[in-house]
Amino acid sequence: MRHARFLVALALAMAAAGCDDDSSTGGCIDLCLEAQAGHCTTITGDCSAFCHALDGVQGPSGCADEREAYQGCLSRSGSACSGSCGGQESALTSCVTLYCMANPANADCVVLEDSF
């Protein structure tokens, strides 16, 4: 049941957790903080920890292309709380969630799950 809750929370939160085009963790952190301030994310945990964990899973999960597409969309939207990146969000969320559900003890997946 906790993994099902994680899937829903990750899907809702990814909209504010993307990074800028150069994939810098700093851009992800800024967007996450902006989304928290704008109340448009379910990420309640530390944005730095969340973004570093997302960095950590994108390689082993094979989700780098999905993250790059989503990051680009968020960067073009101009704000963490505006724009429509639903397709890219869904692709990234599905990819990361599948990896984390198959690897529940992965330290980065634990951080992602605990960020909500």
- Total count of domains: 1
What is the structural class? mainly alpha
Oligomer: single chain
Residues in helix, %: 55-70%
Describe the structure.
By secondary structure, the protein is an all-alpha fold. It has one domain (2-114). Helices cover 68% and strands 0% of the residues. The protein contains six helices and no strands. The longest helix has 17 residues, at 86-102. Residues 1-9 and 15-24 have low confidence and may be disordered.
Quick description:
The protein is 68% helix and 0% strand.
List the topology elements.
Layout: H1 2-13, H2 25-37, H3 47-61, H4 64-77, H5 86-102, H6 107-114
Primary descriptors:
116 residues, 0% strand, 6 helices, globular
